[in-house]
């Protein structure tokens, strides 16, 4: 898969002229490193009545997708099975990565790789009996560095092909 294409998200009037010209965009490797390194993630879905639902989850960034496990009876699974749009964020807000995408069931051929990566990261707390497993296919991602003097100049949006 090709790397996503970076550009500047709409930040309104706070963008300095150099940043508006596209200078200072964060490279995709910056976001990728944080997506891989995060231990805890926030997964946000939409309840049936349109209200948001956010829950922490464990998962792995693998093959350009966020992979995780949750029971089909959980609220988040019931939400994304009805409406697959979701948001996944890393745990560190000072260097935030926000991924918008759609959740789908993991393909059978990807499960073994996911379980290896998951067990390497968290220990032997998950096995194939916890299936189904889920993937978030990203559509857009955003990266932000909290420092006031860097925020507007480095704010980046990536669009996935």
List the helices and strands and how they pair.
Blueprint: E1 5-7, H1 17-20, H2 28-37, E2 41-46, E3 52-57, E4 59-62, E5 65-69, H3 75-82, E6 85-90, E7 95-105, H4 111-122, E8 133-145, H5 148-154, E9 156-159
Antiparallel strand pairs: 1-9, 2-3, 2-6, 4-5, 5-8, 6-7, 7-8, 8-9
Please sum up the structure shown.
This protein is α+β, with helices and mostly antiparallel strands. 25% of the residues lie in helices and 36% in strands. Strands 1, 2, 3, 4, 5, 6, 7, 8 and 9 form a nine-stranded antiparallel sheet that branches.
Give short descriptive properties of this protein.
alpha+beta, nine-stranded antiparallel beta sheet, globular, Pnp Oxidase, Chain A
Question: Can you describe this structure?
Answer:
The chain has 161 residues and is α+β, with helices and mostly antiparallel strands. The protein has a single domain, classed as Electron Transport, Fmn-binding Protein, Chain A (Pnp Oxidase, Chain A), CATH 2.30.110.10. The chain is 25% helix and 36% strand. It is built from five helices and nine strands. Strands 1, 2, 3, 4, 5, 6, 7, 8 and 9 form a nine-stranded antiparallel β-sheet that branches. Strand 4 and strand 5 form a beta hairpin. The longest helix is centred in the last third of the chain and has 12 residues, at 111-122. It is globular. The chain starts with a strand and ends with a strand. The model has no long low-confidence stretch (mean pLDDT 92).
